[in-house]
Hints:
Radius of gyration: 20 Å
Shape: globular
Distance between the termini: 20 Å
Number of strands: 17
Largest sheet: 7 strands, mixed
Amino acid sequence: MSDVLIIGHGPAGVSAALYALRSKLSVTLVGKGVGALEKAHLIENYYGLEKPLTGVELHEAGKRQAETLGAKFEYDELTDLFFDGKEFVATGLKGEYRGAACIMATGAARKKQPLPGMAEMEGKGVSYCAVCDAFFYREKNVAVLGAGEYALHECNELLPVVGSVTLLTNGAELSATFPENVKIDKRPLSGLLGEGAFAGVKFDDGTEQNFDGLFVALGSASAMDLARKAGAAFDNGNAVLDKDFMTTVPGLFAAGDCTGGTLQVAVAVGEGAIAGLAAIKYLRGIREAAG
């Protein structure tokens, strides 16, 4: 277990890591790779750069800087995060990662391309967390929206609890192998059924199918998806954060593009610094209290 578990390899995560490492804390960063920086051709509006760097070059420089101080970088796709009262446990396709404090710094979430009515039905039959909500659908018929590893994880969480699971790919091809007891429907969707609460889906071909619940698991789990799983509170789709970027779960922080706002490297680095310093303060506080 590390003192600080950072989810994301980008500017916010590395910035937070630098502060934690210099305070003699152990740090593990888990992510899938470069992220949004990979698409940056040349960066020349960042303080201290004598000549423009590509996003990949800036990423590699930051990684080397953190590794020199002792940071450990892991490459994995995370599907789950929970807090057991003492530490944060992140589950990925390759393994499990633990930290006494956790900083979410995965960058901006991919656009979910929500179906008409989805936002209005969140918490009313539409969920983003099987671990959190499977209990409420015992022996009921539910659907999972997705086609990849994240959707597979949600299906596996639901199968032991619910009556049946149907995977809705919305026209996408499968990128994971699903259990035989998961029904798969690849037809494109046109919308959700229900007034005020989810009741089912409508397909482009005009047919409809009723479900008791819908679990959204598109693409990879975003920072906010993982924060929901850890129990963080949300308001209008955004995680509730204090001035130090801590969520409502003690020791769980968020920084960088995943918090919204101005999507710039300078802002991500600044938020990472604030979250990193706050994580240091948090860990010192709980350790002093423990004696």
